[in-house]
Design brief:
Length: about 375
């Protein structure tokens, strides 16, 4: 019905014959909100502008649409082509007249220069001529009988069809080799990236290896390379999955209200422990804090901390080895790699400033 909209739109009523009986109530009586199947909803939405009455007819009585819906068993004979030539010519004439009428231009004004360039290049391209011949007369049954230049088209041979002197792959025109460089330049006129250019190409043109050619063209563009954004940061990857509380912890120092604190947070439960440092953030004091922490909750198997001087000192490293704790130092110039501890620091700063603005956490309000 969408293909015949020029003839059906605006009619007071017409009859739609189908051999699919379950569709009868849906086409004739169901409203759009009464249909739950998404596919039937789309069908009902597409045919909603038309006024028709659907009637059922047995398949054996629908000879013409039934024949047109089937794939041909053999290629047309010369007699078939002669018999169908008048119909084909009439259809092309009707479509040309409709195109000219819709655009309001004369046939000379309506001529598409780009398509003419493609046709001219296709006629003199031996590979393209060979491909057109295979599409119109049929590909060989064995790929080894195909010319080497046409092997890239073997996998898509069933999706190729001819329109005059041009070969199409779906809605995309296969571009002759002599015009591919020019086509790539036109696709890159907007100087967008590879992933933004590929969808534009998928709308109109095709040839084997077009995606690689697009990437190479954009990679060779000096302007695009100069304005290319800096290398994005890699995504954070969590390489440990603790199975019990305090098995893996994160730690970080922070300062709030003029006082220094150390936060140690469990990576399984998220439970934070905040310890005031009283101005002493040396490795020795850090060791004492972790001794008390291990004595109360148990020795952790893994500790994550940033590259602060306390955590990278030999004294702290020896302390971790004595207690059998694997110490992981995160990237010093990438705070997100220690994001678990950073999030705990943010929460604890907010808690301290809202409960004890002067930083004295040894009180009932903070507890």
């Amino acid at each position: 019905m969408q293909l015949l909209r020029l003839y059906l739109a605006g009619l007071q009523n017409f009859t739609l014959m189908t051999d699919h009986q379950p569709l009868m109530p849906i086409l004739n009586h169901y409203s759009l909100d009464a249909i739950e199947n998404p596919r039937l909803q789309r069908l009902k939405e597409k045919i909603s502008p038309y006024l028709f009455t659907a009637v059922w007819r047995a398949a054996k009585s629908l000879n013409i649409p039934d024949a047109l819906s089937r794939a041909p068993l053999s290629h047309p004979t010369p007699e078939d082509e002669i018999a169908g030539a008048p119909s084909t010519t009439h259809l092309r004439t009707v479509m040309a007249v409709y195109a000219v009428t819709s655009s309001g231009k004369s046939p000379a004004q309506d001529a598409d220069r780009t398509l003419q360039y493609l046709r001219d290049a296709a006629r003199v391209d031996p590979v393209y001529t060979r491909l057109l011949d295979c599409v119109t007369s049929g590909f060989p049954s064995n790929r080894y009988d195909l010319h080497n230049s046409l092997l890239p088209y073997w996998k898509i041979r069933d999706e190729l069809y001819a329109d005059g002197d041009l070969v199409l792959f779906g809605a995309r025109v296969i571009v002759p080799a002599t015009l591919r460089h020019r086509t790539l330049s036109r696709l890159h006129d907007s100087h967008r990236g590879v992933e933004a250019t590929k969808p534009r190409a998928r709308q109109a043109v095709f040839w084997p290896g077009i995606n690689s050619d697009i990437a190479n063209t954009i990679g060779a563009c000096e302007s695009c390379q100069l304005l290319q954004p800096t290398q994005p940061q890699e995504p954070l990857m969590n390489d440990d999955n603790p199975t019990r509380p305090f098995e893996s912890v994160s730690a970080d120092f922070f300062t709030v209200a003029g006082k220094a604190f150390l936060v140690i947070v469990d990576r399984l439960s998220g439970w934070p422990v905040v310890v005031p440092c009283k101005g002493d953030t040396t490795a020795s004091n850090t060791n004492r804090i972790f001794c008390h922490y291990f004595r109360e909750v148990g020795v952790s198997l893994c500790l994550r901390a940033d590259g602060g001087p306390q955590f990278t000192s030999n004294e702290f490293r020896d302390f971790m080895e004595r207690w059998g704790v694997r110490h992981v130092i995160t990237s010093p110039y990438y705070p997100q790699s220690n994001g678990h501890a950073e999030a705990a620091v943010k929460s604890m700063k907010h808690l301290i400033l809202t409960t004890v603005p002067f930083g004295n956490i040894d009180c009932e309000e903070f507890d």
